[in-house]
Amino acid sequence: MIHSKYLWNIEEASDEKASQLAEQLKISLPLAKLLWKRKITTQGQFDKFFHPEKYESYDPFLLAEMDLAVARIKQAIDLNEQILVYGDYDADGVTSIAVLMKTLRHLGANAEFYIPNRFTEGYGPNIAAFDMAKNQGVDLIITVDNGIAALEVMTHAKEIGLDVIVTDHHEPREVMPDAIAVIHPKHPKSAYPFDELAGVGVAYKLSHALLGEEPKELLDLVAVGTVADLVSLTDENRLLVQLGLRQLRENANLGLAVLAKKASLKLEEATEETIGFGLAPRLNAVGRLGPADPAADLLLTEDPEEALFLAEEIDDANKERKQVVVDVTKLAMAAIEAKESLGNIIVVSGEGWNTGILGIVASKLVSVYSRPAIVLGIDPETGIAKGSGRSVEAFHLYQALDKHRSLMTAFGGHPMAAGLTLPAENLAELDNKLQEEASHLSDEDFRPALKIEEKINLADISVSFIAQLEKLAPFGMDNPKPIFLLEEMNLKGTKRIGADKTHLKTMLANEDSDVTLDAIGFGVGDLVEKISPHAAVDVVGELSINEWNNIKKPQLRMMDIHIPHWQLFDVRNKAEWSRILQERNEQRLFVCFEERTVTTLADQKYILVDETKGFTADFQTEELVFADMPAKVELIEEIVRETKPERIFVHFDASEGNQIPAIPDRGAFAELYSLIKKFQPFPIEKYTPRLIQKFGWNKEQIDFMSKVFFDLEFAKMDSGQIIINQVVEKRNLDESIVYQQKVEEITTRKKLLYSNYTELHSWMKSMMETSIYPNAEELENGN
Fold first, then answer.
1. What are residue 351's phi and psi, to 5 degrees?
2. Pairing of strands 503-510, 484-497
């Protein structure tokens, strides 16, 4: 048995409606199910989804107050007034700056940009920055990707005679800022048909309105900011990103092109993953460590040498950011491990931790500990703690923090993420309060959820089907990359791969089809030893096309697995046994029947079963290891039936050269009996070497035959010498208890040491499927 890491949530599509859609659109049923879930149910929606090049984006003047914004900006340009574009330090913010700055420069505006410092100013407009701008002669500020919540700052700007136009996409407050114009897709007076634009999308709309036509050459910047900000990739965002990716592949912004080359990214093959995992983290990295200006400068420069210099600076910052994340994560985990208990929510802090990367660290802690996590850096000079939190689906982080806002000087966020600032002296109390808020969470609540698109048959997977799936890209929020479930798969040729052997490669197959599917799991190489040969494995993952030597084959990227049944592992060889002994697993229990075996287990958990007293199952364990063997095979059966572990490992002392002894035949018994009778009293120890030499017996066989004679009262031992007794009646050898025990022991050894895996599995299966409790029929019969 292997428990899945994630909760698998499968949204079943209506077969009837999907079939109707497939017929209507002339597409395959699996593709129809995918589109039905994405609410693509008409020919028009289908056409727009797959052919964005045929459609224009929405009229920017449908956004409330766009006319006011355009009029004021054009007035500023005509009067050569000084314009300041006030941005943000993340990828959405710097691409928003670049889009609007390029537009303003194209129109001849006197414009510069300003990005507040994450560490000294924080997010969004602040009075000090606005005062500085006013003193430096700025006449008009245009915010991009911020400003909607800065009501007090906007009021101050009006008081000092500074005009402000707000463009933003974040959640607005109860009232709009008091500004010349507020451009926001969720403006209460807006007639705009789509309200999920990113900050860069709103900036692009303003540029469109100013120019009178779409600046499509800027769409690569729009695509980068939109994908980076994790907004809904539906409707107009899908259109902008699709066209932006095309621009990125064919004629990218100079700065993006140089940065991509520095990062070894192939822009000619760019997808949303190129942005999400390549470009965006690098643009974000600068602002996480210090001023974000170099990222905006890179996107604005027309000088190849400057672009190269800035790209190198940004790439170096990203490397530094990665190392800082690793270092702080280690410190955070060490602090967590030092606590007496983990708790239902993690609150951890440290002096001097870089607050720009704490959101990433919190995400890593959620992944490791499967709990909400808040990570804070403490400024030792001010005593202020500042950081970020990440949560799980079952815990609304914002609401939990909101109940205790009195402990904080600032906080904000949403159900799954938050940022907060508070005096370090309040940390212990906040931790206690949040533990109370999370006390209702169960182990199941801590498991992250995985949204699975559909169950799929192995036979339905083909290169052509995957090619259809790829047309659903770009993937992102509200248009996730499809994750499929394949049930009861047999895994063939499973092995570890990679330089450090941390990845898994296998082939999926089943009895219902001759089709096989290559599969790879990154970072799950440890599962290789946890999947038994007879396992029926449920697998979830993403499908892709793997091309090698011009041959295209379907491939699955495994994301999670589940084995719902018990498993048997044969570790009767020396290498496997050595591996088992080296591993440490709190849920693993070694069963021993001989004291000498215990000494070989080092500090492993074990029980020593006394065969004379039987066995009592007074414990629970996921893994049971039979380190050696009992004299009676029935004891193995009893232990398995009563404990029913998830995983059974069988060793039976096999790697120690544990040979099965041969029972001497009746002729050997007669020969030894005759010699004893002839030369009695017979000093057995003295003559053992000569007996071995003459008859080829071994010492164990000689001792065994002697004990049988004693047991049958044919002879007795007196002062180390054997004397024959006067036998009254004839007795057979198999009447001897010693003889019977030896036969049983050999039978047990043969069964346990020489049965193949299939035979052992069948034997164990019969025990695992046998209840130790009486069924209803047995109870009725009084059994």
1. -70, 135
2. antiparallel
**Are 379 and 363 within 8 A, CB to CB?**
no
Which among 433, 350, 440, 447 has a CA at the least distance from the CA of 393?
447
Single-letter amino acid code for the residue at 393: E
pLDDT digits (tens, 9 = 90+) for 252-263: 999 999 999 999
Tell me how far apart the alpha carbons of residues 101 and 301 are, in angstroms, rounded to a whole number.
11
Q: Give bridge partners of residue 62 from the DSSP assignment.
A: none
Burial class from Cβ neighbours inside 10 Å (0-12, 13-18, 19+) for residue 622 reads: middle
Where is pLDDT greater, at 312 or 532? Answer: 312
pLDDT of residue 660: 62
**Maximum average pLDDT range among 25-34, 213-222, 568-577:** 213-222
Q: If pLDDT is split at 50, 70 and 90, which confidence band does 230 have?
A: confident
> Residue 152: is its pLDDT beyond 90?
yes
The single-letter code of the amino acid at 365 is L
Would the pTM of this model clear 0.70, i.e. be above it? Answer: yes
Phi and psi at residue 546, in whole multiples of 5°? -100, 120
Residue-by-residue DSSP string for 598-613: HTTSTT--EEE--TTT
Is residue 166 within 8 A of residue 154, CB to CB? The reply is yes
Neighbour tally for 148: CB within 10 Å = 25
Q: Is the pLDDT of residue 333 over 80?
A: yes
State the pLDDT at residue 771. Answer: 58
Query: What is each CA distance from 650 to 360, 621, 758, 772, in whole angstroms?
Result: 43, 15, 13, 22
Look at residues 44, 2, 36 and name the one whose alpha carbon lies nearest to residue 19: 36
pLDDT attached to residue 774: 43
Q: Which of 332, 360, 356 is nearest to 346 (CA)?
A: 332
Contact 573, 609 (CB under 8 A): no
Phi and psi (nearest 5°) for 254?
-55, -50
Tokens encoding 602: 């080092």
Q: What is the pLDDT of residue 56?
A: 85
> Cα separation of 675 and 556, whole Å?
73
Is residue 707 within 8 Å of residue 679, measured between CB atoms? no
pLDDT value of position 613: 79
Q: How far apart are CA 465 and CA 484, in angstroms?
A: 13
First to last CA, the chain: 32
Let me know: does 323 contact 352? Beta carbons within 8 Å. no
Cβ within 8 Å of residue 463, ≥6 positions away = 545, 552, 553, 554
- Mapped onto helix, strand or coil, the DSSP state of residue 520 is strand
CA distance 466 to 357: 36
How much is the pLDDT for 656?
A: 55
Q: How many CB atoms lie within 10 A of CB 248?
A: 26
DSSP 276: I
Distance set, CA 468 to CA 27, 490, 538 (Å): 10, 27, 24
Q: Report residue 395 as tokens.
A: 């815990």
Residue 736 CA to residue 726 CA, distance in Å, equals: 17
State the Cα torsion 38-43-48-54 to the nearest 10°.
170
Running DSSP on this structure, what letter comes out for residue 39? T
Strand partners, 419: 388, 412
Contact 245, 221 (CB under 8 A): no
Using only C-alpha atoms, what is the Rg of the chain?
A: 37
